[in-house]
Amino acid sequence: MDEAGDLKVHVNGHHTLLLHQSVVCAFSGRLRAMVAQEKKRMKTASRGGGGGAEVLMAIELAGFPGGAEGFELVARFCYDSGRLPPLRPTDLPLVHCAASFLDMTEEVRAGNLLVQAEAFVDDGLGHWTWADLLAAVKSCDSPFSSGLLDKLLSALFSRIAVGAETLTHSSSSTCSSSSPDTAGGRPSSAARTPESMKPSCLVGGREWWFDDVASLSPATVEKAMRVIGCYGAENKNLTLTRFLLHYLRRAATLRKADDQGCLSGLADTAVHGVELGGGAAAFSCRGLFWALRVASAAGMSRECRRKLERLVGKMLDQATLDDLLVSGDGGGVYDVSLVIRLVRVFVSSVKEEKEATSPSPLSSSSRERMRKVGRLVDKYLTEISPDHGLGVSRFLAVAQSLPDSARDCYDGVYRALDIYLESHAALTIEERGTLCRCLNYGKLTLEACKDLAKNRRIPPGITVQALSSQRLPKLPNPMSPSRTPRRVVVDKEKEALRVDLQKMKGRVVELESACKEMMGHVKVSRAAANKSLGGRGLPWMC
Q1: Helix (H) or strand (E) holding 241
Q2: Which strands sit side by side in the sheet containing 15-19, from one edge to the other?
Q3: Which of 250, 242, 224 has the alpha carbon at shortest distance from 278?
Q4: Per-residue DSSP letter, 441
Q5: Angle formed by the axes of helices 67-79 and 91-101, to 10°?
Q6: Which residues contact 476 (CB under 8 A, 6 or more apart)?
Q7: Are 311 and 279 spatial neighbours (Cβ–Cβ below 8 Å)?
Q8: Mean pLDDT of the chain
Q9: If you average pLDDT over residues 278-295, what whole number do you get?
Q10: CB neighbour list of residue 500: distance below 8 Å, 6 or more residues apart
C-alpha cells in the first residue's frame, strides 16, 4: 500500500483526514458511491479542460454523527482488516451511528462494522455497569441510533426493575439507595414490563435511580416511556409517574425551546399516571397541588388540566392556604381563576354525592366539609385582597363561588372586603355597592355590623340595609331576675344600635327631602334664566 493517501475526507467541515480509497471503500457503501461519483465528475472536467496535473480527490461528509472521533474509530476498523477496535460503552453509539451513516452493512462486506457493533451490544450489555449503561444512553443523540437506543433503554429499565426487586428482598431494617450493581448480581438485558418495577426503599420520596435518569434529555425520556409502553394514556405506573413529576420539575428550569413539545407530552403522561395510578388514594391534597404546579409549568394540555383540577377540587377541604397561593401568569399576583375553578369542582362533587345518596339535605359530614372550604376561601380572600391587579369581578367571583350555606358567619368576607376597599381607594361608589353583594348582612355578628356602620368606605345605603337586617329582639323586663350582668350589657348595646339605626333612617329621609327641594329650586332658576336670555339655555353644571 502506498504511504500517501489518495482520498481527502472533510468531516462536518471542521476536520480533514487523508485516507486510501481502496481501504475505506471496501467497507463503506456510501463512501464507495461518493468516490465513484467524484471520479465521474473529475473525468468529465478533465475532458473539458484538456487534461492537466492529477488532482487529489476530496469528498465532504456533512452531518456525520460522532464527528472526527467517530470517523477515526471507523478508519481504525477499516485499516485493521475489519476487526473491531477496543471500545468503551460510550464509544458504542458513535460506532453504531457511523456504521449506519456510512452504510457499512453485510451487503457491502461480510462481518462489517454494523453487525459487529450490534453483536458487541448483545454480548456485553448484561455485563455493563449501571454507569456504563447510562453513559451509553446519553451518547445516543443521533437519529441513526434509534434502534440501538430502544435496546439500551429496555436494558436500562430492566436494570431498574431488577434493582427494585433486589432491594425489596433485602433486609427491611436497612434501606439502600445504591444502584443494582452494588445490590448484588448482574441483571440480564431482557426488557421487563413496568408492572414488575416494584417500589424500592425511598429517600425523601425518590427512588435510587430518579436523579440519574433525570439527567437524560426530554426526547430520550419520551422515547423511554414509549419503549416500555407507558406513554400518554397508557401510563398506569405510580413509580414512573412520580419519576416524571420529579423530572419535569428539574427540566422546567433547564429546558430549551426545542424541548417544549417533549415536555408537554411528558406532562400529560404524568397526569394520566396520577389519574389512573390511584389519584386521591396515592397522593395527598398537597401532593396533587404540587403535581398541578409542575405539570402546568411543563405545558400540559387543557384536557389533562381539567382532569387534574377535578382530582384536586374534590379534595379541597383538605387544602391549606399555602396550597391555594399559586402564582398567576396574568395581571394579578395569584392565579385566582384556578381557585375559582377548584371551588366549583368541590361544590359540584358535594352536590353529586348528595344526589347519589338521597334527595335529603346534606349530611353532617358534607356540611362540615363545605364549612371548611368556606373558612379556607375567606382566608384566601383576605390574602389576595391587597393585590392591585385583582378586579372587582374577580373578587366577587371568589367570594360568591360557594353557596350561602357554606358560611355560618360572614365576618371573614367582610374583613376581606374592607381590606380590598382600603387597597383600592379609587373605586366608585357604584363599584363599592356592587362589592357588598357578596355579604349576607343577616350572618354578620353584632361587632362586624357595628364596624360596618362606622366604616366610611361602605356606601350609606348599604349601611342602612345591613343594620336593618340585624335581628334585634325586644328588650325584656329590666327587673327580671333571670337577666345576668353580661346580658344586660349586650341588650344595652343592641338598644343603642337600634337608636342609631332610627337616627340614620331619619337622616336619610331628611337628605332625600333636601335633595328634592334643591332640584325644584334648580328647575325654577333654569326656567328664569332661559326667559331672560331669550330662550337660550344654560349649560349643565356638574
Answers
A1: helix 238-251
A2: 15-19, 7-11, 57-61
A3: 242
A4: G
A5: 80
A6: 483
A7: yes
A8: 81
A9: 89
A10: 453, 467
Maximum average pLDDT range among 83-92, 411-420, 516-525? 411-420
Using alpha carbons, list the distances in angstroms from residue 88 to 94, 136, 207, 485, 498.
Answer: 10, 9, 28, 92, 92
Question: What band does 426 get if pLDDT is binned at 50, 70 and 90?
Answer: very high
Closest CA to 116 of 104, 126, 125: 104
Half-sphere exposure of 141 (CA within 13 A, CB side): 13
**Contact, 101 vs 143, CB < 8 A?**
no
Location of C-alpha cell 416524571: 244
Q: Where are the alpha helices (DSSP H) in 476-484?
A: none
Distances (CA, A) of 507 to 439, 455, 468, 535: 24, 17, 15, 39
Going from the C-alpha of 187 to that of each of 137, 148, 165, the distances in angstroms are 17, 19, 11
Radius of gyration (Cα) for the chain, nearest Å?
Answer: 39
Asked if 98 and 66 touch (Cβ cutoff 8 Å), the reply is yes
The full DSSP string for 351-388 is HHHHHHH-SSPPPHHHHHHHHHHHHHHHHHHHHHTT-T
What is the four-CA torsion angle of 363, 369, 373, 374, rounded to 10 degrees?
A: 40
Residue with cell 423511554: 224
Q: Which three cell numbers stand for residue 141?
A: 443523540
What is the reported pLDDT for 355?
74
- pLDDT classification of 179: cutoffs 50, 70, 90: low
Which of helix, strand or coil describes residue 495? helix
Location of C-alpha cell 366539609 = 369
In the numeric block, the cell 453485510 is attached to 106
- C-alpha angle 343-347-350 in degrees, rounded to nearest 5: 140
Q: Mean pLDDT: which of 85-99, 198-212, 354-368, 394-408 is highest?
A: 394-408
pTM here is 0.76
